[in-house]
Specification:
Helices cover 45% and strands 13% of the residues. It has 159 residues and is α/β, with parallel strands linked by helices. It has one domain: P-loop containing nucleotide triphosphate hydrolases (Rossmann fold), CATH 3.40.50. Strands 2-3-1-4-5 form a five-stranded parallel beta sheet, sandwiched between helices. α1 runs parallel beside α7.
Amino acid sequence: VIAAMARAGGQTVVFCDTKRACDKVSDDLVALGEKVSALHGDMAQGARERSLRKFAQRELNILVCTDVAARGIDIDDVGIVVHYVPPLEVKTYLHRSGRTARAGKDGWAVTLAEYNQHTTCRIIQRGLRLETQAPIEVFSNDKRLADLNSFLTSSIAAS
């Protein structure tokens, strides 16, 4: 789903809650042929700077990072922010989402959540007074995942 969104919507930042999750998501996206890098505190400073530079220069289309590592991201062309795991605080959600729709451009903030994270998502929605559509339910059925991919891709392309 993340790869499809990035292909349709451009530069994409994916936020994970742990360094291990960053590496896992990054590795999975590389296996799908995406140009991606992780960005987290266990990386050497030089490696973090290279990842940011490559992302800013569009050599990478996806950057997978933790909140702490993302503090230095100041790139105007981010089209999509993906919350791979919804944050626990409204302020964190706002900070993450603020990486997109800069300099008068449009952008998307997408939250991927499991059923047991519904309450966290509702708290964020209410805290930010967001008007949102009903969540799309996806199960482990391949057809439904394909339908979600189609929906997200067409929605992003239409905006």
